[in-house]
Amino acid sequence: MDKIVTQSKLLPGYNTKINKTIQLGADKLGSYALVTTALEPCIEGATAWSVVQVPAKDGVFYVRQDTPDCIRLSERDNPFAKGKKIGNTNIYRVERARKDCNSKAGFDSNLLAVRRGDFLFTLVDRGRYPLDKYRPGEGTQAYVDREESDNTSKDSESYMELEFASPYREDIGADTILKVEWRIIKLKSGSTEEDIAQILTSL
Question: What is the C-alpha to C-alpha distance for residues 201 and 44, in angstroms, rounded to an integer?
Fold first, then answer.
């Protein structure tokens, strides 16, 4: 497996560095990148964080969890509508409740995914800690920008952020490590959401 290792400079005010390892691999589903993030030293009140930004398009994404619910992170946030379960799987289709404002919420999920045409972009937390080690909604978050109005410049585009975080060091009593696997999966032409759910169930 090919590997790239990087380390940031000392972060001002935090006395810590960010260590990141990117490993490339392949299996029966195709190629993937496993991104590992850790703090050195791991300080109190800090978490390892991963944020991926993609075009929002229709504002739809998928999560893997046991309920259709999302978690409101603050009173300022406009949360998403409840997810719609796909078949008999634990995959839910989630979309923003309103298009005229930003939407943000947390999920009890170790998987986030977005479809773009015949491609499925997936993110899986491969170093997942027990659920009770995360503060409500903080381990997995999604943000979708409001839909742009007709008055907005054609050069601008609404976007989506898919985020994972490790627990806080003080909540697990040890250094925290975040491992997020990225994949782009080529879908068969005409794939349905049921097809997508079967793929996401297998990851």
Answer: 35
